[in-house]
Design a protein that fits this description.
mainly alpha
Length: about 450
């Protein structure tokens, strides 16, 4: 559908820009060697974990706001948006304090082998922790502005942040003139400053908005009722988003037993692989807002057509990413790490994960579609259960002749199962909606 595509394209562009932040870091940090990549990748796990806490308010706030806008209840939509921002801000500040105080103990969990890598990871984590609040605000404002049908403004602001990051990354990593070479810490500062620049742009925008944010009072009193409704809706997604990186940390510890180079392979490989899931995540946000608005307006037929269009688009994209990783994996990996003994490990990772790309895209679309209907529990249960299954699967498969590749297969196979099961469950959910309101929704 034209409306969905117009809404989704800027969101996907924003997702690509967010991915580009990480890729730019990896390109430059990769020139420092696999040790630096391992340090950044280890610290990055905790930044990934931070998104789980922000999802609690972002998901609930986005869905409630979109549904109220669809029902033409703008003032009430503003109240949900306000409380979501306030709640998420409190959680972000609390998480920042924990990271700053406990960064050394947290990095110690991974049992990295090289003391220099450990020190670099600690330093990187301390610096990027200063940008956690900015990262949340950017995600929150992007989601809320998108609910108003404007997905272009977040794209423009994120582009400005990316350009800033591209310019300052090499400058701060390698130094120039009076600017000292800060190595991995330089990449952390470039990313943190870029995130805050984007936050400032968003704050300037919302002060002038006369649609939604004119009803949002950031320093107003929080509503217990609105916060409770936001938490109830966002909690399943937040648990999933928190448990996913925690499970990945356990797996990363298993990977570390194969050496620091294996940790670097996982970090670089996951960034390359993010070409698929970041776009899928962007489309998930779009279909979430699209369905929530139409569900609030009781236009279920349009919501169903939007879902079908999203599935077709993401199936095509997933197949393209599969072919890209399987047949161009070696070339892509060498853009980040050129050490001869590490490249074969990277190619193996991308080939194995390549088989799951389409199913990972399916997971993203169905997750967003479920949440648009206010049903956050089913995708969370599926996601948590099958992602947790990676831990025993990785232990079993890595103990065979597959070795390190067994860990990669545990990740890939779980993605195949999640995407397949969520698709089947959501189609069943849609058919039940069809029976409830046969005049409103058609699935053909």
């Amino acid at each position: 559908m034209t409306t969905l595509v117009q809404l989704a394209l800027p969101i996907m562009g924003t997702a690509l820009i967010q991915m580009a932040y990480n890729l730019v870091d990896m390109v430059w940090i990769g020139k420092l060697g696999s040790g630096a990549v391992a340090a950044v990748g280890t610290a990055g796990m905790f930044m990934w974990l931070s998104t789980g806490f922000t999802v609690l308010s972002r998901m609930g706030g986005q869905v409630h706001t979109a549904q109220k806008l669809g029902a033409d209840q703008v003032v009430e939509a503003g109240k949900y948006a306000q409380n979501a921002i306030q709640l998420g801000t409190l959680l972000s500040v609390a998480y920042t304090v924990v990271m700053l105080v406990g960064c050394r103990s947290l990095i110690g969990f991974f049992h990295l082998n090289d003391p220099a890598v450990v020190e670099s990871a600690v330093q990187y984590l301390m610096i990027v922790s200063l940008g956690i609040l900015a990262s949340f605000l950017n995600q929150m404002f992007t989601a809320l502005i998108t609910t108003t049908g404007n997905s272009k403004t977040p794209f423009y602001f994120m582009t400005i942040g990316l350009v800033f990051n591209i310019v300052f990354d090499p400058l701060l990593i390698f130094g120039l003139g009076p600017i000292p070479a800060m190595k991995a810490a330089g990449a952390a500062w470039a990313t943190t400053l870029a995130q805050w620049l984007v936050s400032i742009l968003f704050l300037m925008y919302i002060r002038q908005d006369d649609h939604l944010f004119c009803h949002v009072h950031l320093f107003g009193r929080m509503s217990k009722q609105h916060c409770l409704e936001i938490v109830q809706l966002g909690l399943p997604s937040a648990l999933q988003s928190c448990l996913f990186p925690l499970i990945s940390m356990v797996i990363a510890r298993q990977v570390a037993s194969f050496g620091d180079a294996a940790v670097a392979v996982q970090k670089v490989g996951s960034q390359i692989e993010s070409v698929a899931w970041m776009i899928s995540d962007g489309f998930s946000v779009a279909i979430n807002s699209f369905i929530a608005q139409n569900y609030g307006a009781k236009n279920l037929q349009r919501a169903g057509k939007g879902y079908r269009a999203a599935m077709i688009a993401m199936t095509v994209w997933g197949i393209f990413c599969t072919l890209l990783l399987i047949f161009c994996g070696g070339w892509l990996f060498q853009l980040f790490i050129s050490e001869p003994d590490v490249i074969p490990m990277g190619v193996s990772y991308l080939t194995i994960l390549g088989f799951s790309q389409m199913f990972m895209c399916w997971e993203g679309v169905n997750n967003g579609a479920y949440c648009g209907f206010g049903r956050t529990l089913p995708p969370s249960v599926v996601g948590i259960t099958l992602t947790a299954a990676r831990i025993p699967a990785a232990l079993i498969l890595s103990a065979t002749s597959l070795g390190l590749d067994g860990i990669w297969w545990s990740i890939s196979l779980s993605s195949v199962c999640k995407g397949t099961l969520l698709t089947l469950l959501f189609w069943r959910f849609l058919h039940h909606k069809l029976k409830e309101e046969p005049a409103s929704l058609t699935i053909e």
